[in-house]
Every structure is written in structure tokens, then in C-alpha cells.
Amino acid sequence: MLASRHAAIARPCATARRAPRASSARVVVARAGAERELWYPGAKAPKYLDGTMAGDYGFDPLRLGANPETLPYLQEAELMNARWAMAAVTGIAFTDAVGLPKWWEAGAADYGIDFNTLVGVQVVAMAVLEAARIRGFQRTGESGVLNSFPFDPAGLDAPDKRVKEIKNGRLAMLAFLHCVSSYAVTGLSPLEGLQAHMANPQAVNIFTSAVGGETVAFVAFCSMAPTFLLAQKTLGDGKEEEFNPIPW
């Protein structure tokens, strides 16, 4: 299902001649100068990340959004994956809490429907919904369902809520990555892992797991990276350098 969603998003990126029309509802007023929040203190955001998008903290180390025509599609792709991740993590926690089959067992469960029929229905349904969503996004610059762009039946849409949504969505994507990696390392579900940790915190944690060494190295890197960045900025010649790892 996620693969079909990615394909539907990627196709317009490659074929669209112009970016979708900007929507005033999607724009968040940027804080000026030093008052703007960035992903780490003293960071300098790329010119194209001016703080007008919800959840923009100037973080794009690979400069994936440098192309103004593909940037709206990348923002939409992040938002869609964030929403799927929030739904997935909620579902994983719910099934784990009530004793239903674990998330990695769901694909092998018997739902009383032939597998080929289930896949066929899903592919057709997702194709129709995704085609309508992409057309609506290209026309309005908003996320929606069928002919409703933006999709906001409760009338809750507001700039601050868009920021909260993408923040929670980013956390959910990290949480889903944790669910997958935790099962791969320990073979436990999230709640089972939490119970094992609470029973013996000193002996059961990420540092004592099979990837403890890699975790220590990653934490050390994240701890020292800001120091190196600030040192480079302080000792540099003051000239602005554009880092372009991907030649758009």
C-alpha cells in the first residue's frame, strides 16, 4: 500500500511542468531573523527554506528541496507518510494492548478473503483514491480526499495545527522505525519490550542489546556534530557556501 502511495507521489514529480498552486492556508508566517526556530542553535537555513512551510526548521542536509518545482511534492509526500505512520503506530499499539495478532503476523492472518482478491481490491481502491488526491493537490496545493481539498470536515484547520500535525507525524515515523528495528533486534513487540525494560532497566535496554555498540557510536556522533559545525562556522572565512550533493 505504501509502495503504491510512493509511486503515485513520485510520478507527478517527474512529469509535472510546474509546481501546484500555493495555498494561503498551507503557509505559516515565518519568524524574522534570529527569532526563527531552527533545527539546532546557530544553524543557517538554505535560502529556499524560508520558514513559510509548516514544520520548516531549515533542516535539509542533502538539499533535496533545492528544486522549487519538486519541493511542494516532497512536502506533500512527507505529510502523507507522516499520516500513515501515525495510523500505523496507533494500530500497532492497539493490537498489542488488546491481545490481537502482532503487526508482523497480520499479513499471515486469515481474513476469510482470498489473498489475490484482497490485493486486487486494495490496488484498485488505492489507485482511484491516489489519482483523485494527486489531481486535487496539483490543482489546489492542498491534501484531501476525492473532491474535498483540503479535507477538514470538523473545521479545525489552522496554521498552528498544521505545525503540530507534521511534528507528531515526524515523531510517528521515528516510532514506526523503532517498532520495526526493535522487532528485528529483540523479536518483541513495543509493549513487550517496554515490559521487559521496566522489569530490569539496567540489563534490558538499547545499550545492552545486539546493537549497543552502534547505538553508542550514533549517540556520540550526534553529541559532537553541533560542536564541529559551530567550530567550522567560527573558524571559517565567513563566506556562504552552498552544499549541493545532488545536482538538480
TrEMBL record:
Q: Could you tell me which SUPFAM superfamilies the record lists for this protein?
A: Chlorophyll a-b binding protein
Question: GO molecular function: any one?
Answer: chlorophyll binding
InterPro entries linked? Chloro_AB-bd_pln, Chloroa_b-bind
Report the domain of life of the source organism. Eukaryota
Keyword match Plastid? yes
Q: Which UniProt keywords apply?
A: Chlorophyll, Chloroplast, Chromophore, Photosynthesis, Photosystem I, Photosystem II, Plastid, Thylakoid
Its GO biological process terms? photosynthesis, light harvesting
Localization recorded for this chain is:
Plastid, Chloroplast thylakoid membrane
Which residues are noted in the entry as chlorophyll a-binding? 78, 83, 164-165, 170, 197
Q: Which annotated residues bind chlorophyll b 1?
A: 119
Question: GO CC terms for this protein?
Answer: chloroplast thylakoid membrane; photosystem I; photosystem II
Q: Mind telling me which Pfam families this protein's record contains?
A: Chloroa_b-bind (PF00504)
Residues that hold chlorophyll b 4 according to the record: 168
Function description: The light-harvesting complex (LHC) functions as a light receptor, it captures and delivers excitation energy to photosystems with which it is closely associated.
Identify its protein family.
Belongs to the light-harvesting chlorophyll a/b-binding (LHC) protein family.
Q: Specify the protein name.
A: Chlorophyll a-b binding protein, chloroplastic
Q: Which organism is it from?
A: Ostreococcus mediterraneus
